[in-house]
Design a protein that fits this description.
eight-stranded mixed beta sheet, about 15% strand, Rossmann fold, about 325 residues, Epimerase_deHydtase, NAD(P)-bd_dom_sf, Epimerase/dehydratase, alpha/beta, Lipid_A_modif_metabolic_enz
Length: about 325
Amino acid sequence: MAHWADGLAGESNMQQVIITGANGFVGHAVSRLFLQRGDSVTGVVRQPGTTVEGVREWLLDTRDFVSIDSQWSTGLSPDSVVHLAARVHMMQDPSADPLAAYRETNVEGALRVARAARNAGARRFVFVSSVKAIGERDPGRPLLETDEPAPVDPYGVSKLEAERALFAYSRESGLEVVVVRPPLVYGPGVRANFLQLMGAISRGIPLPLGAIGARRSLVFVDNLADAIVHCATDPRAAGETFHVTDRRDLSVAELARMLATQLHAPSRLLPVPAAALRVLGKVTGRSAQIDRLIGELRLDSSHIGKILGWYPPHTVEHGLLETAAWYRSTH
């Protein structure tokens, strides 16, 4: 059943945008930017009252967007759709067949939204994928959009399959598809590993990261949101795949030191060799987490600059300052 929490008011000078996953970490940031532009934003969510102020909520209680086409309001004809909703990466996946579960949500679900959007008159569909669609390591240089993808887990496989399925649908239907591949996203409201890292640093816990020089790409959530808005509105983005980063790759040690400064906490980084951390990972059954700490994963994000003239509006320092300020005010 679909329910409209607010009426649809359309003005000819506004873009009408639909965002799936508008209640999430990235969804909030993207919604705010569209609203600042004066666009009309509708968020597809399951629970009411979970989007930012000004977003019209479309409450859709169907799993994996099954029957979204039949529940689409006749009053909603979007210019573009940003698809953020996904079955996200899980360290301990409870599903008996994780790949099938990821495919049903991330591939079939995305296609259902794309088809319904096209039928409703949408011109542009922005699919927010993941660095995991291309791989977990870089080959000694930042990864390009044209590099051969090598996803290693069910989540990454499903994101790559979704990219390819959407581009195939684009060729068949004429719907303009744009794929955005972010690396680790951080900012106010961040969860999971990044939040745990800030918690440990703020409490002054010694961390075995002092000798880790491997660099990884990051993107501040407001930089990612800015790129997504460009991808939804710039005619030149149609048919493109873009890596989006802060354009400055940090080592885990650099990141921890910068966070310590912004959190007003001591930087207690122990110089434990990477080889010792690998052994620790095997002993504790956390090899995957350790590999992400000590392996390089950099994305070349120059392509979006060449095609759209886009450059991140916020520096890494600003992003970490905003993130640390949020953490200090809420923890």
